[in-house]
Amino acid sequence: MAQDPKKVDENSKNEQLEQYRSDDSGKDLTTNQGLKLSEDEFSLKAGERGPTLMEDFHFREKMTHFDHERIPERVVHARGFAAHGEFEAYESLEHLTKAKFLSKKSKKTPVFVRFSTVAGSRGSAETVRDARGFATKFYTEEGNYDLVGNNIPVFFIQDAIKFPDLVHAFKPEPHNEIPQAATAHDTFWDFVANNQEAAHMVMWTMSDRAIPRSFRTMDGFGVHAFRFINAEGKSHFVKFTWKSTLGVHSLVWDEAQKINGKNPDFHRADLHEAIESGDYPEYELGVQIVPEEDEHKFDFDLLDATKMWPQEEIPIQIIGKMTLNRNVDNVFAETEQVAFHPGHVVPGIDFSNDPLLQGRLFSYTDTQLIRLGGPNFHELPINRGVCPFHNNQRDGYGRQTINKGKVSYQKSSFTNNTPAPVSEAEGGYAHYQEKVEGRKVRKRSESFKDHFSQATMFWNSMSDAEKQHIIEAFSFELGKCDSIDIRQQIVDMYANVNLKLAQEIAANIGVKAPETGNTDTSKKSPALSQENTVKSAKTRKVGVIVAPDFNGKEVMEVLEQLESKGLQYEIISEKQGKLDAGNGKQLKIDHTFTTADPVLFDAIYAVGGPDVSKKFARNTAYYVTEAFGHFKPIGATHEGKKWLDANGYTGEPGVVTDDSMKGFADSFIEAITAHRHWTREV
Ligand code: HDD
C-alpha cells in the first residue's frame, strides 16, 4: 500500500503506525473472522465429560495461531530491545551529501533504534561480555536509511566470507550447547588464535566497553567506511559515530555476572524506565570525513573494518542529535519484526569496497527471508517507509498490498511505462561511478595485514584501571578454555600487542610467559579511554536503605536534592509499605532487601534507623560491601554511618559521610558523577 506523498516530519512514523494499532480492552471477544464468541474457557465437547469435537472452529483457530506464534530468532543479535525517537540535524551537510535528512539545519526525521547483544539467544541475559548492536532506521522522505552498527568501532574479521565461521566459533559449542552468550570457551579462542585479524576487536571486547552500564551510556559506530556523495557527484569517505550525551560508562565484571541472575532484563528495563520517566536517551551523530584523494594517506587501509579512524587524526564533526522518546507498543510487532539492512541507503550515501560491508549487503535481506517468512517483510508496519513505494514486485507469502490493474512488468504501453525510473536530478538513486579494475582473485590486500598496531594503540590509551580490567577479562575468558595449547597461543599472540599484557595474563592462567614482545607505548588515542568521557550524575539510580523512625526531615531533604539534580532513587527496607518521614509525610518503600540487590544500583545511600534487627544490619552490611567492592559511590548519614565504620570504608575514595548533613547531598552527587572510584583498595 502506498502512502500519499506528504511532508515527512518527526511524527510521520507514529501517525503511520497508528492505523495498525489495536486496543482490545473493553471490546467484545471475537474470532479472527469477527464472529462474536459466547464462551472462551471450555472446548466444545460431546457431553460434559466427553471428547472434544473436531467442529470446534474456535478451539482450532485459537490453538493453531498459538502453535505458530514463534519465528526463528536472529542468527546473531537475537536478544534486543528497541525504541522510537527522532533525529534532528544540527546543520546542512549539503556540501557533502545529497541525503535530504541531512540537508537542513533543524530538520527532523523519525527513527527506530534496536540495541542488542550479539552472541546470546533471544532469552539470554543482557549484561554479558559482548559487543552491543546499535541499529538505527531513519524513516526519511527518500526511503528508509539504516545505519546498522555496533558499540565497538571495529570488527573481528576483514572479509564477510568468514562471518559464518566467526559466529559458529563464538556461539555455544554444538556438542553440548554451552556456554550461552559468552566467548569464554575453546572454540572462540581457537578462532582468534587462527584468525589474528581479530586481535584489535578482541581488545575492545575484553575491555569495559563490552559490559556497558546501560544502552544509554554507550557510543555507536557504523564501523565501515561509507561514502557521502554531494549534488555535484563528489565523493568523500565517511565513518559514522553515535556519541551518548551521558558519556560511556560500564559495569564491573563481577557485578555484570551477578546482574544476569538478579535481573536478566537489566538493560531493557533501564531503557524502558528511562523513556517512561522522561529521561530520554540522547546520542549525537558524528562523522569523520576523508576526501577521496586522501584515501592512501594513512598507516591503515580505510577499507579494513578491523581499523578505526583515530579521532585525533581524523576529527569527528558532530552533525545532529537523536532522542529516543517513545517505547514500543508491542515488542514482537516492532522490535522483533524490524528488519535492518546496511544496504538500505538514500541518495547521497553509498558504499565503499570494504569486503566486510560488501558481504553484509547480501546477508541481511537473505536472513530476513527466512526469519520473517518471505519477501513481503517491507510491508510490516515497522518496516514501511513513510514515503510512497511503487514497483512491479508482486505476490508472495503474506502480501498485503492490493496492486490494481493488469500490468506488473516494465515496460508497458498500458501504463505509459510507469512506474518509471526517475533521473538523478529528480531523486533517482545512482551508484557512485567508481572506476574499478583488477583480476579476479581470492586474496587479502597487503594493506590489510597489520593486525596489531591499533590493538597496541588501544592498550596504550587505557588508564591503569582499564588496563587491569582487560588483564582480568582475558584471564577469566582464557581461564575457562580447556585447551592449554589455545591459552598459550593467545598469550603468544598478544605479546605482539603488548608484552606486559601477555605476561600478566600468562601468570594468571598457568602458561609460559613470553619473553619478548611489543613494548612500544608511543601511539595513543586519549579519546579511547573511558576516563576521558562525559561524566554526569543525571539519571543514576541510588538505593536508599532506611529503617523505621529514620530521620525523616533531613533525609527527605537529601532525597529532594537528588531528584532536583535529575537522579533517581529507590527505597529499600526490611518490609514493603510506608514509613513515617515526619512532618506528616510518608516514604514509600519500593523494595525489601530481597526484591532488590546492590548490583542493581549506581550508588548506595545508607540511612538506617535507631533500632534495627540483626538481620537488617547484616543485609545493610551486604549492600555496602558489594557496592564498595564494585567501586560504587556510597553515602551514609545518621545511623547508616556505623556500617561504613564497621567495615573500614569511611574515608575511602567515593565514600561520603557527613555528621552535620551540611553539603552531604552535593558531595554525594559529586561522587556519583565520577561513576566509579577505581583508586579504592578492594
Ligand atoms: Fe550483522 C544482524 C551489526 C557484520 C550478518 N548485525 C546485525 C545487527 C546488528 C549488526 C546491529 C542486528 C540488527 C537488529 O537489531 O535487528 N554486523 C553488524 C556490524 C558488523 C556486522 C556492526 C560489522 C561491521 N553481520 C556482519 C557480517 C554479516 C552479518 C559480516 C554477514 C556477512 N548481521 C548479519 C545477519 C543479521 C545481523 C545474519 C542477523 C539478523 C539480521 O541480520 O537481521 O544478517
TrEMBL record:
SUPFAM superfamilies: Class I glutamine amidotransferase-like, Heme-dependent catalase-like. Its cofactor is heme. GO terms for molecular function: catalase activity; heme binding; metal ion binding. GO terms for biological process: hydrogen peroxide catabolic process; response to oxidative stress. Heme binds at R74, R114, F163, R360, Y364, R371. This is Catalase. Its EC number is 1.11.1.6. It catalyses: 2 H2O2 = O2 + 2 H2O. There is a cross-link at H341-Y364 (3'-histidyl-3-tyrosine (His-Tyr)). PANTHER family: CATALASE, CATALASE-B. It is an enzyme of class 1 (oxidoreductase). Residues 1-27 have a biased composition (Basic and acidic residues). Decomposes hydrogen peroxide into water and oxygen; serves to protect cells from the toxic effects of hydrogen peroxide. It comes from the Bacteria. Residues 1-43, 513-533 are annotated as: Disordered. GO terms for cellular component: cytosol.
